[in-house]
Here is the input.
Amino acid sequence: MIEKLLQELENHLLELKSESLEYQEKIRALLHKRTQAQNPISYFNYSTIIDKEKSGEHTVIGTFHLHNPSTLPLHNPVILLKINSDQPFDFSGKYVFANKPIQNETFFWERIEHKQSGSINEYSFRPVANKIIPPNDTFSFSNFQIRFSNEETGYMHVEGFIYYQEKSDGIASLNSISISY
Here is the structure.
């Protein structure tokens, strides 16, 4: 009788072990699929310089990061910065215009006309040399500046979006830049 119970227990343990291995394999497959399908992320880092003088100028110095956490490369990445402001501003950064000769400096970004960009307050860029963002790599559009006058109160809101060959409808950044002055 005891031997029969031991045999049943052994058989049940073998069944549980087999089920456990099947579940582990299913979890591995789901994790692998999730990692491959993981969307890239983008976000801003920025600092503001606020001038207290009425005739002064405020400055935002920012960097827009694009990170590819998946196991697949991203092809032909484009970043889009949308700036909404009720006051005039000046946007600058280290980029070159498309189809313009590059002079003595090294530019990593090129300003382009993008189908999603429909306003003069929208700025689209693509990498000059690298058309592919490898898995687990980050590209950054560094040290752009937005300057605006302190003569009147106002607001500024900067949103970021990323586009790439595999996802042409775009993905919004994790954060934005919002300033009321």
In short: The mean pLDDT is 85.
